[in-house]
Amino acid sequence: MGSSRAKEERAARRAKTEEMRRAEVARERRNRIITWTLSGVVLAAAAGGGWYVVQDARQEQNAREAAVAAPVKGVRTFKDLTQNHVTTQVDYQTSPGVGGDHNPVWMNCDGDVYTEEIDETNAVHSLEHGAVWITYNDQAADDDVRTLRDRVERTPYTLMSPYAGQTSPITLSAWGKQLGVETASDPRVRQFLDKYVQGEQTPEPGAACTGGKSA
């Protein structure tokens, strides 16, 4: 009995340590991206003799960070989401699902665009890794679908697929977060991506978006 409890405690400590490690990796990656961006701008400014370029870059970065910190109007939040691995279908709180029990295998979400509906339980696993899932139904305009496809293909930790059962023409989903919009030109599309791709809501920051299910 005591031996079993000790094993469980060791397993829990290992899981907690791994969770902290993933969070630290995600923070370090974000910091490196910011550092590389500013360093590149500094070099370009030095070569051209224009320090004002550096100032503009810093102002743009500050504006971006402020936008990420600001709430996105109309986003619905879902709490107390379970994270069990299951091999059966799940009745999610909303359509598409934004969290809860999910398939052990995630959908590839490294800017992946799927032209047919995908398994919801795999996609929810991708959200657990910090991805944003963009879905659309037959009410979405063809031009909007193309615009979103191009954006997703340029954005790591995103995926896109049709989803007939949703109420909005376009829906953006992250773990515990969801936003419905009418068009791809809605400024909240970019705001949602900026805020929730590998955002603070991510249960497993830094987890893979490749090596999962591709169709």
TrEMBL record:
Pfam families: DUF3105. It comes from the Bacteria. InterPro entries: DUF3105. The chain crosses the membrane at residues 33-54. Keywords: Membrane, Transmembrane, Transmembrane helix. This is DUF3105 domain-containing protein. It comes from Streptomyces griseoruber.
